[in-house]
Amino acid sequence: MAADPSPAPTSLSFPRSTFAKLTPGPFLHAHLKQNPPIRPSGRTLTQFREQQITTGSLTHSHGSAVVRLGDTTVVCSVQGEILKAADIPSPPDESADNEDLLETLGLLVPNIELSTGCSPAHLPGNPPSTLAQSLSWKVRTLLYGSEIVNPEDLQIMFTAPKIDEEDDAPVPEVKAYWTLYLDIMFISLDGNPFDAAWLAVMAALRTTRLPRASWDADREAVVCSPALEHYAHLTLHTTPVTATFAVFSTANPLKQRSEAESWVLTDPDTSEEEVCREALTVTVDGKRVLGIDKAGGRVIGMEAVEECVKLTFARWKEVSTILP
Amino acid sequence: MPHITTSALQRADGSATFTSNLYSILAGVNGPVEVQRRDELPEEAYIEVNIRPGSGVGTPRERYLESIVASVLRSVILVHLHPRMLIQVTLQVLQEPSEKLMKGKGEVAVLPSLLNAAFLALVDGGIPLETTMSAVLVAVDAAGGVVAEPSIKELLICQSVHALAYDLQGELVMDQSTGVFDMGIWEGVAEVASERCKAAVASTEDTDEMRDTDESGEPWLRTALEEKVRAANAWREQT
């Protein structure tokens, strides 16, 4: 009788995915140590993920976009609602320039929803996390700060008919405003939520068409024309583009700082974000820089920031051609 | 020169007030204390930052500021010394300019004061730190002139506003910039800010001709820290 074949000796080496789960830091380090450095996803250090933009998928909203950035998927819907000027408690001064008008009245309302089951870190049904709230605020700040939406597009004007021949020509007055609600839902989240959210906002705003609204003096109400040919696009002033970079560093308080090595990773995914503490987000528009946002560490110096800004300018060229 | 008091709160482990020309911040630090289960980190201390605005309750704006302050403090505190613990930093805005700063300028403008107050409170609370850092606010006017520690009037009309923080070694700890600018201007801003931060910890005994007090500011941080050390060692001199 032949004895039971003894089981094959279990190997002590792990498959790649187990190594990645057990020790994410050394796993990424092992990849980056190669020459030239390559990331676990097969990308180079400065490579962005493939993006895919689909617009107009939501038929009930005035503008919408679905953006995929690798495995991060975001839906953004733009919904216009009417705010009557008479309902504003302290109406803005007519004579004041309307540079700050949008923000004073809060006519752009972004909201980011992460509690959709988009990632294991964000449980569905939970109240908005700190990340969701601070992302909403970042989108809001950039919407107002970049002056992307023309305030005149959101004003619903009314010129009273001339009753008496001797009267001066009537001045048009603002009877109501459009308020744009930007709902940003993450379907799946695999790192870099801000870039994906902003790309979705841009794509959605660029395809937003608002119906022609006019003031009906007899009914004291705003009426919208249902005719499709009366829908008009927003005139967007700028096309800001953002790029996020994460820094992986072997710096350790137990080691000399000079021994530490670090790599700047463009457009990080979740596995990379989890082991990177320092992050940098750059916002550019054409030749202008609209924002730099760096926190979390002390590895990126001036030269590295400038390098990232250069990469973002290149990214702007690429993205501004593919936006709808 | 900012006005600083330390140990302002009786019952907190560490506290400080920091009053710049724009904002007045009260910071309190508790830690290391026990951490809630869901926040517990196996290898390091969890940093919790709570910001209370000058009026009303916290909004997403405060959550956004908290996330920035927490990530900066995490890079300064020696978090690995207190695994599975919590270091809680609470920042109360006591005073702010009555004019509202729009387009993200208000958030950037308050950050240096928040960070400086939090850092002084951490020092007061005896939390082990990796380095000394200070933050500074810089504005760029329409003509491209760089103004450090701008007044509210200058902020209202400026082109861009930058909050930068540097550590003792002169490394860039944080940069929050908003507005419209180009990289040439940013380099100028970074230079002015790093000079300011260097001056904040410059030696007080060193009355070298090189140091121009009017240009780059007073060594406020060193003065505050030296006072702290002197007070802590007072018992030694008495005995």
Automatic annotation (TrEMBL), chain A:
**Stored InterPro entries:** ExoRNase_PH_dom1, ExoRNase_PH_dom2, ExoRNase_PH_dom2_sf, Exosome_comp_Rrp42_subfam, PNPase/RNase_PH_dom_sf, Ribosomal_Su5_D2-typ_SF
Indicate where this protein resides in the cell: Cytoplasm; Nucleus, Nucleolus
Annotated keywords: Cytoplasm, Exosome, Nucleus, RNA-binding, rRNA processing
Lineage of source species: Eukaryota, Fungi, Dikarya, Ascomycota, Pezizomycotina
Output the SUPFAM superfamilies linked to this UniProt entry: Ribonuclease PH domain 2-like, Ribosomal protein S5 domain 2-like
Q: Name one Pfam family in it.
A: RNase_PH
Biological processes, Gene Ontology terms = exonucleolytic trimming to generate mature 3'-end of 5.8S rRNA from tricistronic rRNA transcript (SSU-rRNA, 5.8S rRNA, LSU-rRNA); nuclear mRNA surveillance; nuclear polyadenylation-dependent rRNA catabolic process; rRNA catabolic process; TRAMP-dependent tRNA surveillance pathway; U1 snRNA 3'-end processing; U4 snRNA 3'-end processing; U5 snRNA 3'-end processing
Family of the protein in this entry: Belongs to the RNase PH family.
Q: Give GO terms: molecular function aspect only.
A: mRNA 3'-UTR AU-rich region binding
- Quote the cellular component terms of the Gene Ontology held in the record: cytoplasmic exosome (RNase complex); nuclear exosome (RNase complex); nucleolus
Q: Give every Exoribonuclease phosphorolytic domain span.
A: 47-211, 264-313
Q: What is this protein called?
A: Ribosomal RNA-processing protein 43
UniProtKB/TrEMBL annotation, chain B:
Q: Mind telling me what this protein is named?
A: Exoribonuclease phosphorolytic domain-containing protein
Q: Which InterPro entries match?
A: ExoRNase_PH_dom1, ExoRNase_PH_dom2_sf, PNPase/RNase_PH_dom_sf, Ribosomal_Su5_D2-typ_SF, RNase_PH
Q: Which domain of life is it from?
A: Eukaryota
Q: Which residues form the Exoribonuclease phosphorolytic domain?
A: 3-128
Q: Cellular component per GO?
A: cytoplasmic exosome (RNase complex); nuclear exosome (RNase complex); nucleolus
Q: What is its main location?
A: nucleus
**Which GO terms label this protein's molecular function in UniProt?**
RNA binding
GO BP terms: nuclear mRNA surveillance; poly(A)-dependent snoRNA 3'-end processing; rRNA catabolic process; rRNA processing; U4 snRNA 3'-end processing
Please state where this protein is localized.
Nucleus
Q: Which UniProt keywords apply?
A: Exosome, Nucleus, rRNA processing
Family membership noted in the UniProt record: Belongs to the RNase PH family.
